[in-house]
Write a structure and sequence with these properties.
Residues 146-200 are annotated as: Domain III. By secondary structure, the protein is α+β, with helices and mostly antiparallel strands. It contains eight helices and five strands.
Length: 200
C-alpha cells in the first residue's frame, strides 16, 4: 500500500494531475478546488482505490484528508466525487459536524442529503472523536452555524433583489465572509457585476 510519495506536479487539468516521483510519472486525481503548485517539490499522500472494473490513485495534501476520504468512500452510496465534495469543507469542519451529530450542516454540502448525513455520523462518529476533541468540535460548529445563517440571509436578500440562482451561486463562491449583511450584499453585487459571464 502506498501511503505517500515525495515529488512534484508537472501538469494539471482540473482534477487530473501528472505527478513525478523517483523518475516515475503517475496519473492521480486530486480535489480540483484545492490549490496545487506546479514544479514544486512536495509530499503527496496517496490513496489507491480499486474496484472490480478500475484502479485509480487519489492525492491529498494531508494525511488526515486521506484518512477521511478513505473512511467516506467505505460507506455505501458515497463515491470519490461525493467524498471530494465533502472534503471541500475542510477535514476539521467535517469532523466537527460528525462529532456534534449536526445533520443540518452536513446536508448543506452538495450531493449529501439527510439520509447520507445520518449514515456518515453513525459510521464515523467514534473515529472522528479520536481526531478532534468535542470542545473544539463545538466551537467549530458555532462558527459554521453563524456563517451559514449569514449565507442564508444573503441568499434570500439577493433573491428579493431579483438576482438569478446562478448569479447568487457565483457571488457566494467569490466573496469573502464577514461583516454586516449590507456589506455582504454590496460585495455580492460588485462580484456579479464584474463577472464576464453576466455582462450583456
Amino acid at each position: 500500500m502506498i501511503l505517500y510519495k515525495f515529488g512534484k506536479i508537472v501538469h494539471q487539468n482540473g482534477e487530473n494531475i501528472i505527478y513525478e516521483a523517483a523518475e516515475n510519472a503517475y496519473s492521480i486525481k486530486v480535489n480540483p478546488n484545492s490549490k496545487w503548485a506546479l514544479d514544486v517539490s512536495s509530499k503527496l499522500y496517496i490513496y489507491e482505490h480499486r474496484t472490480e472494473y478500475s484502479e485509480q490513485l487519489y492525492g491529498f495534501k494531508t494525511f488526515r484528508e486521506r484518512v477521511l476520504f478513505a473512511d467516506l468512500i467505505s460507506i455505501s452510496g458515497i463515491g470519490p466525487k461525493i467524498a471530494f465534495s465533502i472534503l471541500n469543507e475542510g477535514w476539521e469542519k467535517v469532523a466537527a459536524m460528525i462529532v456534534e451529530k449536526n445533520i443540518d450542516l452536513l446536508s448543506v454540502i452538495p450531493y449529501v442529503n439527510a439520509k447520507v448525513a445520518n449514515t456518515i455520523i453513525f459510521t464515523l462518529e467514534k473515529k472522528m472523536l479520536k481526531m478532534i476533541d468535542r470542545e473544539n468540535a463545538r466551537e467549530q460548529i458555532n462558527v459554521m452555524t453563524t456563517s451559514q445563517q449569514e449565507i442564508n440571509e444573503l441568499e434570500t436578500s439577493l433573491k428579493v433583489l431579483g438576482y438569478q440562482k446562478r448569479q447568487i451561486k457565483y457571488a457566494l463562491d467569490h466573496i469573502d465572509a464577514g461583516g454586516s449583511l449590507e456589506e455582504l450584499i454590496e460585495r455580492a453585487i460588485v462580484a456579479i457585476s464584474q463577472a464576464p459571464e453576466f455582462r450583456n
